[in-house]
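To: structure subgroup
Subject: Chain for Friday's discussion

All,

I'm putting the inputs and outputs inline so they're searchable in the archive.
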Amino acid sequence: MEKRSRGTTGAIALITALAWCPLTSWAQGALSNSEEEDRNRLDSRSAWDFTLGAGAVAEPRYEGSKHYILNPIPYVAIRYDDLVSIGVDGIRWNVIHSNGLHVGPLLSYSGGRSTGDDELLQNLDNIQSSINAGAFATYKLGHFEFLAQAQQAVLHEHNGLFGKIGMTYQEPFRLFGRKALLETGPQIEFANRQYENTWFGITPAESLRSGLREFSPGAGVKDVGLQTSLTLQYSPHILLRGIVNVKELVGDAADSPLTTGKTQFFVGLGIGYKF
């Protein structure tokens, strides 16, 4: 399921990037040994796909913080054929899956934010975790994959609506005699007024308690960034992955009194085993 580490939405992108398995069908073919191997793999492939992994990520203590923390990341993913998947992005149902296009509903979980996460958050209200519901669409065209996604918090609606659009370029090659896959591309995240006020706003009561100025942000683009990952197929079942992501908070999110670091970095390493 989707997880926000200490309320850091940028960590979602990083954790999602650590979801190395299952790879896209194009990438799986790119990492196979031969056309005959591809055919054998497709003929013998089970409808069920299960991956277990773990890793660690260095990330901001909360979205907008200049202070960093190292967090462990467990990972479990289950997929049935090309219809349903359960993983870091939540539960996805591919209502449409044809010619590289996947469209469907999405259900996910987002963690909250605690006043104990950082000194600057003291005397502010805690943000509760929530279940989110939304929709996604992806389209694969050769080496490129395009993504659009939007979700609304439904358990705690004041957590707001948020989403992202992006593009990823995938390039297979050999590294140390083993198959590798480089993925990189830009991403833009947006949010509505409720989201921005919950995560970046300062209410009059919070201002009196904390000494921070009142701040009421509006809807719009929240950040722009670049995500890059390198996957190494160490063995037929074991994959290693490194992640380096960077994003720049923009608009009202960048102007918030809570934002002490507009440029946010996310660096992680992980290992996965595909059964």
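Points worth raising on Friday:
Residues 1-39 have pLDDT under 50 and may be disordered.
Helices lie at 9-17, 25-30, 35-44, 193-200, 204-210, 251-255.

D.
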